[in-house]
Write the structure tokens for this entry.
Amino acid sequence: MSDIRAGGGNHRRIAIDKVGVKGLSYPVVLLDKAHRKQHTVARINLYVSLPREFRGTHMGRFVEVLNRHHREIDIHQLGRILRDVRAELNAESAHLEMEFSYFIEKHAPVTGARGLMDYRCFIAADLGEHFRLRIGAVVPVTTLCPCSKEMVGYGGHNQRAEIRVSAEPAGFLWLEDLVELVECCGSSQVYSLLGREDEKHVTTAAYENPAFVEDVVRNVAARLDEHPLVGRYEVGVTSFESIHHHDAYAFITRFDEDR
């Protein structure tokens, strides 16, 4: 078979930053703080850079490299996987992105009832001159509007919100610890299982801790700034408004800064 990478017709001679496979469903294994390992299924994007003199890349080789890693991908193998992809495709850089459900057991605040919370988590790794790793999670919280509470006096509109955080670890950082770090930054936390006593506690906690979306994103940023295992980061908070026909959003990034 002829090598289409250097095939004819590439008269544009424009380099491509990322080319590869996207949306590949694949089994992965992750370190679990409580149970050593957790198996889940990830949606994987795997790319390389393509020089301007090449017309195309060998898409099948991305999957071949994944299959060589025993059909399970450990987070500690990501650097080796990217090195293999880069070498196999003769590329200057390689990139991998994974998004997956990660389950954490959580106890109700009063009764202690145990339930599993699933968090949308993601990992991104890049290998060029240096290896870079980012981990992240989408964490649900509750927000109660301070303005509404002040006007009404005996209540306030509240709603679900999501905190999306992405961080470059400055050492080994558990996903569980990243989730725990940010989920206390809203008006109250979200649980998968609550008794009546728990519901009373959560509702009261939210009422006593009203927070605008701006408050939440600043709360998260302050905690990330103080954490010794968090380097650069970005955090976005979306509040799914219950009485408005729009959502509220706030965002802070430290990826543009040296930390």
Q: What stands out?
A: The chain has a mean pLDDT of 89. The chain is about 25% helix and 40% strand. The beta strands are 16-32, 36-50, 73-74, 94-107, 114-127, 131-144, 158-169, 188-189, 230-239, 248-253.
